[in-house]
Amino acid sequence: MTEQKENEEQGGGLYGALAGAWTYAASSISSLLGYEDLDVVNPDGSKAEEARADSNDKRQIAFTDYKDYIGMDITSLVTLPVWIMEPYTILQKVAEIMEYTELLDKAASTEDPYERLAWVAGFCIGPFGGNERTWKPFNPILGETFELDLPSNGVRFLAEQVSHHPPISAGHAENDKWVYDIVSAPSTKFMGNSVEIYPVGRSRIKLRKTGEVFSLVPPNSTAHNVIVGSTWVDCHGNFSLTNVSTGAKCSLYFTPCGWFSDGRYQVSGHVYTEEGKKVLALSGAWNGHLDMQPCDAEGDPLPGSQTTRLWQCKEKPKGDKYGFTYFARMMNEGKGVAPLGSDSRRRPDRAALEWGDAGTAGAEKHSLEEKQRAERKERDRRKEKWAPRWFQPAKDTETFEGEYPLEDCPLWDFTGDYLKLARKAADTTDDCAGKDFCPWSYPDLHEQ
C-alpha cells in the first residue's frame, strides 16, 4: 500500500450511520475536488437563491480532473478537513435513533399486533427528523465507543467501532421492554453531479413481552448538485420494516423530490397482515411526523376513523451553528458522566472544535490518525489480531428477507460484558470532554 493511499484511508472519507450519511456527502466531494466554497443548502431554504446565483465555473473545471471516479464507491477516497466537520462522531449519529425510545415502549404495551408494528415504524422514522444537518461527523477510531443512558425509561446504549477497513459500527440498546441492535456499514457511489448513499446495515428490534423480532431496511439517499448548482439532499425509495416472527410488514415509500420541490419529504404506505392484507394506512413527512389510520382493503383510510400520531419531530434549537437537535446537544455533554476512556466525548479534536478552536482540532485529528497508524504497525509487528471489546462476530448468521447479504454487512453480537461493569460515579462539576481519550490497544506506545 502506498503512503498516499494509506494517508487517504486513515484520514477518513465518506462513512456514516444509517441516518447521517448523506448530510456530509456533498462536502466530501467538494473537498475531493479542491473546491472549498461549495455551499450545501436546502433547496427550500433562505440561502437557496443566493447559492443559485454563484458561478459554477470552478467546480466544472475541477470536475474534469475527477471524472474517472464516476460510478465508484468514494467511502475511503477522501481525507477531510476539520472545517467541514461538526463536533460529533459517527457513533453519536448511530445513537441518535435513541431520541424517541418512548415509541418502542408504546409498542411493547400495545395489544393489537399491527398497531404494535406501526409504533415500531414510528420509532424507526424518528432519526430522519435530525437528518438535515450539513456537517460531517468525525470518523471513529478503531475501538472507539459511545455510551448513553436514558434514566427516564431505563435505556442503556453502547456503540463501538468494530472495523476500520471496511468501516463498520455496531450498537446495542435495551431496557426492560425491548432490545435494539444495529450494524452500520454504508457505501456511496459518485455519479458525476450527485452522490448516491446506500444505508448498508442491519437493524433489529426485539420486544421482550411478545418475543417478536423486527428487521428494518431504510431508504437510500442522494446528495444532488455536488458539482454544478446548489447542493441539496433527498431521502427516497422504499422503507421496509418486517415482523420476522409473524410475517406482518410495514412498507413505506419516501417520495423522491420532484420539480419545484414537489413531493419533498412525503412518506406514505401501509401495514400489512401476514397474508398481505392492508390494515393500516400511514402517511406523513420524514422531517416532521408520521400518522396512522385504519384503512379498507384497497388501502384507503376508513371514513370517520381516528388518526393517531405515531411520531412528531421535536422542536429544534434556533440558530444552532451545526443544526443540532436538543437531543444531539445532550449527547455532546460531558458533565456529570464518567464514560469509558474510549468514549467519543473524550476525543480532543471533537472537543476543540466544539470550543471553536478549529486549528487545534485539526492538529489533534492528525495526531489521532498518526496514533491509529502506529497501532496498526505495532499490531503487524507483533503478529497480533485486533478484536472489539464489547462486540464479537455473530455465531448465528441467519439473515432475513430483504436484508443486506453477509458479505456487505456482517453480523455482530453484543457480548453483554458492558452491562456488567460497575457504574462509575462522577463529580457533576467535572467535564470529560476532550480528556483522557484512550481507545488504544497499546497505550504505552503513545505516552511520549
Produce the secondary structure layout.
Blueprint: H1 3-11, H2 25-32, H3 48-52, H4 57-63, E1 85-89, H5 90-95, H6 102-109, H7 113-125, E2 136-138, E3 145-150, E4 155-163, E5 168-174, E6 178-184, E7 187-190, E8 194-198, E9 201-207, E10 213-217, E11 220-224, E12 232-243, E13 249-254, E14 266-272, E15 278-285, E16 289-294, E17 308-312, H8 326-332, H9 348-354, H10 358-382, E18 391-393, E19 412-414
Parallel strand pairs: 1-2
Antiparallel strand pairs: 3-4, 4-5, 5-6, 6-9, 7-8, 8-11, 9-10, 10-12, 11-12, 12-13, 13-14, 14-15, 15-16, 16-17, 18-19
Helix pairs in contact: 6-7, 9-10
Largest sheet: 15 strands, antiparallel
The proportion of strand residues reads 25-35%
Compute the number of helices.
Answer: 10
| Shape call | globular
Number of domains: 1
Q: Considering DSSP H and I runs of 4 or more, what fraction of the residues is helical?
A: 10-25%
Describe the structure.
The chain has a single domain (3-332), classed as Porin, CATH 2.40.160.120. The protein is α+β, with helices and mostly antiparallel strands. It is globular. The model is unreliable at 1-56 (pLDDT under 50). Helices cover 21% and strands 25% of the residues. The protein has helices at residues 3-11, 25-32, 48-52, 57-63, 90-95, 102-109, 113-125, 326-332, 348-354, 358-382; strands at 85-89, 136-138, 145-150, 155-163, 168-174, 178-184, 187-190, 194-198, 201-207, 213-217, 220-224, 232-243, 249-254, 266-272, 278-285, 289-294, 308-312, 391-393, 412-414. Helix 6 (102-109) packs antiparallel against helix 7 (113-125) and helix 9 runs antiparallel to helix 10 (358-382). The chain has a 15-stranded antiparallel β-sheet that branches.
